[in-house]
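Quiz preparation item.
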């Protein structure tokens, strides 16, 4: 019973860290990368469709992105979705491709992004701690129902605390790396 609780806890905490990585990939730094477009949905024939499934991306010179839609009919929708997104760029369309030139980030915008990353990191830490709390409650229920002994309960709680520390440390490392990337000019 305890091994299943521990395995489930580790799986959920790992998921929280992976979610944080995905969130951070969508935050724009000074350089262009296709992951910036992962959260953008395009109205494609009435259905919200991820931009990454409608086009190919080519990064040139670090700050220019060429987007080539698979279907030219989706070009207007892609342009509108990019313009409405929080990327802060204005796409230009030559009929076959969409060109985005990302302006350099201002110091103010970089600080804003750092605040956003800190907030997302805190959300990930909260998710990890909530998972620990739920697992501890499951262990206490087993103890209350006399399915495990006091020693097993204590050992399980220490094991859960160790896993929690491991994943909160990972969140901190990811945050530190993203801050360095954002402050890089």
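Solution:
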């Amino acid at each position: 019973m305890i091994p299943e609780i521990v395995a489930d806890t580790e799986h959920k905490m790992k998921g929280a860290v992976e979610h944080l990585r995905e969130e951070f990939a969508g935050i724009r730094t000074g350089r262009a990368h296709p992951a910036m477009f992962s959260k953008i949905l395009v109205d494609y024939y009435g259905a919200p469709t991820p931009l990454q499934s409608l086009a190919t991306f080519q990064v040139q010179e670090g700050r220019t992105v060429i987007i080539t839609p698979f279907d030219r009919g989706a070009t207007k929708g892609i342009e509108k979705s990019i313009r409405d997104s929080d990327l802060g760029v204005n796409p230009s369309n030559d009929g076959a491709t969409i060109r985005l030139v990302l302006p350099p980030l201002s110091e103010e915008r970089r600080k804003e992004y750092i605040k956003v990353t800190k907030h997302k990191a805190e959300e990930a830490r909260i998710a990890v701690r909530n998972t620990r709390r739920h697992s501890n409650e499951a262990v206490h229920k087993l103890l209350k129902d006399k399915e495990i002994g006091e020693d097993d309960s204590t050992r399980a709680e220490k094991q859960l605390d160790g896993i929690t520390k491991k994943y909160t440390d990972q969140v901190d490392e990811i945050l530190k790396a993203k801050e360095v990337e954002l402050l890089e000019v």
